[in-house]
Amino acid sequence: MPGPAGDRRATLRLVLWDVDGTLVQAGQVGRDIFTEAFAAVVGRAPDEAAARMLAMAGRTDHEIALDFLASHRIDGGEAHLPAFTEALVAALAAKEAMIRERGRSLPGAEAALAALGSVPGVVQSLLTGNVEPNAVVKLAAFGLDRHLDFEVGGFGSDHRHRPSLVGVARGKAERKYGVGFGGTATVLVGDTPLDVAAGREGGARVVAVATGPYGVDELEASGAHAVLPDLRDTARALAAILADRR
């Protein structure tokens, strides 16, 4: 399991990566696994119009699932979440080959992860709306999992409220590594305004990358501390992520 490069006492930065649209494109399987999970849990196919309108970018899997159930007037959404989560995991696991075939690691992602992994005092993990097993599947499909410490990530399976995941991940990292990651010692890297809002609400530094559905101007307007067009320029990405490093 990857840890910080160098002595733990020198650990100064917790970098939390979003998954979809930031590190990988998973082959457009997201909506499919939700429709399959719905059918598995409810016993019938979802309404096609409701499935098409399902808002997913920047949201947690549990939040999406509850909205999907509510849009079909299904009561007791909370009670369905454990089964829905299990069905989401099974549905994505069945698509591993499809993800490798149709998806891709986004340009510069591998190099940025590797470069940060060589910086003393940096811990890399995730802050993602994906439930943990699905995040691992998507990254492992392209060999990116080896750069990350999943034990200290914030996942959609930890909390449905994305801003709360900053505190979840920070708490895990502080317990594991024995040092604090308060304020901008935690950096969130994501591709949507919801990622930016989550990081800022959690008191983290936020670096936005315009490799998802939003452009540079939109991400700048959302309040990110730094915005990159993509991760191709490794030196520029590291400078943005490690700015004001102490």
Description:
The protein is an alpha/beta fold and 246 residues long. The protein folds into two domains: 159 residues, Rossmann fold; 65 residues. 44% of the residues lie in helices and 11% in strands. The protein contains eleven helices and seven strands. The strands form two sheets. A five-stranded parallel β-sheet has the order 4-1-5-6-7, sandwiched between helices. A two-stranded antiparallel ribbon has the order 2-3. The chain is globular, with a radius of gyration of 18 Å.
Topology overview:
Layout: E1 13-17, E2 24-25, H1 30-42, H2 48-52, H3 61-71, H4 77-93, H5 96-102, E3 104-105, H6 109-117, E4 122-126, H7 132-140, H8 164-177, E5 186-190, H9 193-201, E6 205-209, H10 216-221, E7 226-228, H11 234-241
Parallel strand pairs: 1-4, 1-5, 5-6, 6-7
Antiparallel strand pairs: 2-3
Helix pairs in contact: 1-4, 3-4, 6-11
Name its key features.
alpha/beta; Rossmann fold; five-stranded parallel beta sheet; two-stranded antiparallel sheet; 44% helix
The CATH level-2 architecture of the largest domain is identified as 3-Layer(aba) Sandwich
Mean of residue pLDDT values: 90
Q: Beta-strand percentage? A: 5-15%
Inertia-based shape: globular
Summarize the biggest pleated sheet: 5 strands, parallel
CATH fold assignment of the largest domain: Rossmann fold
CATH class of the largest domain: Alpha Beta
Which stretches are poorly predicted, pLDDT < 50 over at least 5 residues? 5-9
Could you spell the SSE succession in H and E letters? Answer: EEHHHHHEHEHHEHEHEH
Count helical runs. 11
Helix content: 40-55%
What is the assigned CATH homologous superfamily of the largest domain? HAD superfamily/HAD-like
